[in-house]
Design a protein that fits this description.
The protein is mostly helical. The protein is 81% helix and 0% strand. It is flat, with a radius of gyration of 21 Å.
Length: 221
Amino acid sequence: MNRYWDIFIDSLWPMLKAGLLFAVPLTLISFGLGLVLALLTALARLSSIKPLVWLAQFYVWIIRGTPLLVQLFIIFYGLPSVGITIGAFPAAIIGFTLSVGAYNSEVLRAAINSISQGQWEAADSLGMTRPQILRRIILPQAARVSVPPLSNSFISLVKDTSLAATITVTEMFQRAQQIAATTYEPMLVYCEVALVYLFFSTILSALQARVEKYFERYIVR
């Protein structure tokens, strides 16, 4: 029993360190860039320019229709065969960003469509241009509506970063694999890393609840 406890304690900091150095930055960078891509994609799908609409639809179709793991393998292992070599961490950022952008573009598009047409018409009657209406009236309301699904997406991304281990990024799960290989206690180590992910997810879920409660006061029902 003492051996198991020693392995548990000795493994905890290396896993947390890997999470702080790789999983957290990977999550924040990918989610931030993904939100920008999601907004551009959502606006493209809502535009009246057909080539933009088709391009955005094609991008969402490809990313949502293929596994994230396969996408990471194509970026990291497949592109070098055509002369494009990308490091493990940048490859993970690209893969996760494309995934976040595709899925959250649908969230933002639905949020924008949920704003009543009357608000567009009222703003138009005041002489506002379409970009002004979007920036000043529609997008602020759509952002509040989309907080819950975007928060869920962020929490899911934290857990999905474990897939980066498959392309040699030394995040928490790969660190757990390395520890399990040296201690010969895979059950203990993998349960421990699962608890670490659960800990992060629980904290983020609590923060999500507070953020949602804060923004609820501004949503017009």
